Amino acid sequence: MVVPKKRTSISKKRIRKNIWKRKVYWAAVKVFSLAKSLSTGNSKSFFVRQINNQTLDLKPAPLNKI
After folding, report:
1. What are the GO BP annotations of this UniProt entry (predicted)?
2. For residues 36 and 28, what is the distance between their CA atoms, to the nearest angstrom?
C-alpha cells in the first residue's frame, strides 16, 4: 500500500488553500460582474428577450468566427 513518507507542512497546506481561494475569488468576481451587467441591461455577452417587461429567456451571444 502506498503511503506518503513525510507529512505535508502547514505552510504548504496554506499555500495550496490560498491558491484555491484565489481561484474561487476571481470566479465570484466574474459572476458578480456578469449579474450586475445583466441587471442593468449593459450586458454585451447575453441577449435578453423581453415582452411586457418580463424576461423570457437568456441566450449567450454568438461567437464571431475568425
Report:
1. translation
2. 12
HEC assignment per residue over the chain: CCCCCCCCCHHHHHHHHHHHHHHHHHHHHHHHHHHHHHHHCCCCCEEEEEECCEEEEEEECCCCCC
Phi, psi dihedral angles at 51 (to 5 degrees): -135, 125
What are the residue boundaries of the structural domains of the chain, listed by start?
Answer: 11-60
CA distance 48 to 51: 10
